[in-house]
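Box 3.1 — From sequence to structure: Lactate dehydrogenase
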Amino acid sequence: MPQLLNARDYRDAARKRLPTALFEYIDRGTEDELAIDGIRKSLDAIRLAPRILTGHAERNLQTTVLGQQTGMPLIVAPTALAGMVSHNGEVKLARAAARMGIPFCISTQSVTTIEEVRDGAPDALLWFQLYMWKDRNLSRKLLERVAASGATTLVVTADTPVGPKREYNNRNGFSIPLKYSVRGGIDVLTHPHWFFGVLLRYLMTTGMPTYGHYPKEFRSAVTRPSVSEAVKLENLLKWDDVRQLRQWWKGKLVIKGVLSLQDAIKACELEADGIVVSAHGGRNLDIAPAPAEVLPAIAEAVGHRTEILADSGVMRGSDVLKYLSLGASSVMVGRLPLWGLAANGEAGANALFQMLRDEIDVTLAMLGLRTPNGI
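Predicted structure (token representation):
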């Protein structure tokens, strides 16, 4: 795919291939989309000064995150319904991530189960993102499955106490559960690559996609509402729930969605192994600060006590290094891998990760640095 040279090229390709409703669900923010704009401006404002005449013939992008050696300071962020972007999308992302030696974080709301991802990508470094269900016992059983599949790290998304106001979803008729409509049907039929390559393949094999991790007795197609209160997402999480998870989960525990110093300190007090300084990609709270604005103070205060990750708004390899320069040890990317999947399936994801790796490498070379840790 030589014509896809940067993230915006992949985004444009995804826009052409995906139904408008699905593309905008992935691509856009919330309310007036000020947060997305602010995240981009905060990253664009950062400048990194190069050191000259350092004589590094090559760079080593390997780093360590939560005790795992990774091929570069990148983690594939959890994204709901990645399997709707490309057939078996979660498996494809896991394989692409494994080739680069980076972790892939599976979402509670993925189409494919963690067991299926493990079977399809046996060498993948698997993490798991948890949305707690109302029935805590069902969540605990899910974590037992996750542990049995070899996931090393649990990422608890803590920044979604209510559903955000995404007006474009209403205009596009997009919702979970998906609803049939004339407008939606036209949208799908005018994107035949997605209809034949994704939706029809599911319908002809496994049927309408479902949330794969939901217990079988509560599982339903994404076109049907949940039939039980038990598997509705718990919107009233408290710090006591983190204490409970710390007892249930024996691997690494990461809290995602931290934007305040107070919450970062609290996470350390509860012995979280890491935090993700994240604005949810600008998709939740439109008046939230950009991660780049709060990351330095958080890193200075608790960086010696817990691992600090960051996400939101990455479009270039240089954005990854900017977050590292502010105190993060590694960076999550969510939209970009989905754009790669949409553009050309697993090959598209491979190419996108390689593009980011090349951009990180070139930027390090220009900065006169041999490793990302030197930033």
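Summary of the box: The longest helix spans residues 335-367.
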